[in-house]
Amino acid sequence: MVSVPVAELYHSLKESLKLKLVTPEIPLHGKIKSSEIHRPGLAFAGYYDYFAFDSVQILGTTEVSYLKQQGPARREEAFQKFFGFKIPCIILSKNQMVPGLIEHATRAKIPVFRSPLRTTTLIGRITIFIEDELAPKSTVHGTLLDVYGVGTLLLGKSGVGKSETALELVQRGQRLVADDIVEIKRTSDDILMGYSSKVIRHHMEIRGLGIIDMMSLFGVGAVRNQKRILMAVTLEKWNPEVEYERSGLVENNTAFLGVTLPHIVIPVIPGRNIPVLVEVAALNQRLKRMGIHAANRFNEDIIRQMAEKDKAD
Q: Are 75 and 102 members of one domain?
């Protein structure tokens, strides 16, 4: 099962959330298995039927005030049951503290953090981080570009010219996201985000030239760290026995991580300007997303003209 280490949460967000580890002797070995952030007010009151113990537990003003109003005996009883669960970590908002909490957390080996931020701010930022980390992921061999605002994933066999096409596209003003290895993450039911590996980010491998730094060569405006993928384009060597799409009336699709994308196959042959074809494909995809389908409109015009001619005859 996919999970997020508590250590990763802490090291990634400690600056933005101003997190302070108040139990430094406890190792951050816990795993966060749910993006749901839980406020355990009902649990402290004794209701555990839907206790999301595998989530980050945030104690806001409501929970802290309730516990402080309880007598030592009642608070001890609440802590005994609460810390009997394998909780990944606890975060207290507004730098609050509850008597006896640290002692019980230390015995249960559950790390406790404090933050000066408000509870709603903590929940929002932590939820975004965990959902991003828990999102389904995959990697593909290809090149991802931002072509006129359309995230375009170039696919094809090694040596077909993906990187060279991408290089020409960047020279024409488009932006590189990832070359060779594209990391894909499904951030919602129908959204795919593409990234580059941090090791090779903003770099390309061009046969005969080697590794080149695209940002240093073409400037910061020539690269992006991420982009939503809206279209896949496969480059393949021209096969005279294959009937390639010519009218545009038949739309092909492909899928990654369960999300369907429009898929175009462009045959590569000497003399064809592949970068220009990719740009036109991206612009055409933008039109389709705006409800303008050129091939369908052209087909409807022809049918209408034929009908009018038949009436005239």
A: yes
Residues 77 and 122 in one domain: yes
Q: Is residue 269 part of a domain?
A: yes
Record the tokens describing residue 9, joined without a space.
Answer: 């949460």
1 pLDDT band, cuts 50/70/90, is low
CATH of the domain at 117: 3.40.1390.20
Give me the residue label for tokens 């932006």: 175
Phi-psi domain of 169 (left: phi exceeds 0; alpha: psi -120 through 50; beta: other): alpha
CA–CA gap between residue 89 and residue 28 (Å, rounded): 9
CA distance linking residue 170 with residue 212, whole number of Å: 13
Name the nearest CA neighbour of 194 among 208, 180, 205, 214: 180
**Number of structural domains found in the chain:** 2
Let me know whether 215 and 99 are in one domain. Answer: no
* Of 17-21, 107-111, 143-147, 239-243, the least confident: 239-243
308 part of a folded domain: no
What does the pLDDT read at residue 247? 63
Summarize pLDDT for 116-138 with one digit per residue, the tens. 999 999 999 999 999 989 889 99
Domain hosting 32: range is: 4-134
What mean pLDDT is reported for the chain?
91
Specify the pLDDT at position 295.
65
Tell whether 118 is covered by a domain. Answer: yes
Q: What is the dihedral of CA 17, 20, 23, 28, to 10 degrees?
A: 40
Residue 197: partners with Cβ closer than 8 Å, 6 or more residues away: 178, 181, 183
Cβ neighbours of residue 104 closer than 8 Å, sequence gap 6 or more = 79, 80, 82, 83
Which pLDDT score, from 0 to 100, does residue 22 have? 95
Residues noted as catalytic: 141, 162, 180, 246
Q: Indicate whether 121 and 144 sit together in one domain.
A: no
